[in-house]
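dumping this here so i dont lose it
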């Protein structure tokens, strides 16, 4: 699909974000570089990474390759990254650490900057630094990730800017409806990580029955389902053919009955590691290092 034809969602500050993007969680630096280059070459606009993933340098390399080899302009790319847990809390340290992220990404700004987790005792001061980053033009929009309603309320009570986005786990197996409803009531857009349920839904008989009816794959049906729920979706893959397949979801529509059938697959179960996360870190001590791709 042509970059200019992709569906976009307007954020609360007027910035527009593409509704489908590439995620690079668990990708090595080399794989991230190749995947980002391939994605941009195939019409993707939205690229999502994080310092936590340990591959920002690869994302920056992939972007530069697309600019130099394919004539893509930086302004045509919507780049998202996140403030690392271990950098949170101290205003000056957040600002300094983010400068390092920009250097790794080989850019002078990101289009969306997210606070990766609401780390206890630190997320409000982190947000204060992010508000300054926004005002200085180093980010076009700022938001949060993995925030529940309690912590998001606290952040808004202490901050001056309402987050533009909350990136949460969302797929047919987990809807987090209370968070979705709360965020939408405040004009905060929802972004789905793991929209394919880490692959666990690809063999679901309901999804496959609907996929067969539309002559589409299970993955395409799952992404279309999220799209029709108004989500911004981040599909992770390092395979160019799957990138192309994931992009081919704008030429069909699920019926109300089909949407309901998939809705009923909800189990409200997070990914295996999610419940192990502590709000001030996790049992493995995240906060002191950037996780390697096979770690988190």
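and the seq i came up w/
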């Amino acid at each position: 699909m042509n970059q200019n034809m992709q569906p976009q969602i307007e954020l609360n500050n007027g910035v527009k974000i593409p509704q489908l993007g590439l995620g690079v969680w668990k990708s090595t630096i080399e794989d991230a570089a190749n995947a980002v280059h391939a994605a941009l070459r195939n019409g993707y606009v939205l690229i999502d990474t994080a310092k936590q993933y340990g591959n920002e340098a690869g994302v920056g390399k992939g972007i530069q390759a697309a600019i130099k080899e394919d004539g893509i302009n930086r302004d045509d790319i919507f780049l998202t990254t996140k403030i690392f847990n271990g950098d949170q809390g101290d205003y000056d340290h957040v600002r300094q650490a983010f400068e390092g992220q920009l250097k790794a990404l080989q850019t002078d700004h990101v289009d969306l900057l997210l606070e990766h987790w609401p780390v206890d005792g630190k997320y409000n001061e982190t947000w204060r630094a992010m508000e300054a980053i926004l005002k200085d033009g180093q980010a076009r929009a700022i938001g949060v990730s993995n925030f529940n309603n309690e912590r998001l309320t606290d952040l808004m009570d202490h901050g001056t800017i309402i987050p533009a986005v909350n990136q949460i786990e969302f797929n047919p197996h987990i809807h987090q409806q209370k968070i979705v409803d709360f965020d939408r009531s405040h004009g905060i857009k929802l972004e789905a990580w793991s929209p394919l349920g880490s692959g666990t839904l690809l063999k679901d008989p309901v999804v496959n029955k609907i996929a067969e009816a539309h002559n589409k794959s299970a993955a395409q049906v799952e992404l279309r389902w999220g799209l029709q729920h108004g989500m911004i979706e981040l599909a992770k893959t390092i395979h160019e053919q799957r990138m192309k397949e994931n992009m081919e979801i704008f030429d069909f529509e699920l019926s109300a009955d089909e949407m309901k059938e998939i809705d009923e697959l909800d189990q409200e179960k997070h990914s295996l590691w999610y419940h192990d996360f502590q709000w001030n870190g996790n049992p493995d001590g995240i906060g002191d290092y950037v996780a390697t791709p096979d770690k988190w």
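The chain has one domain: 17-268.
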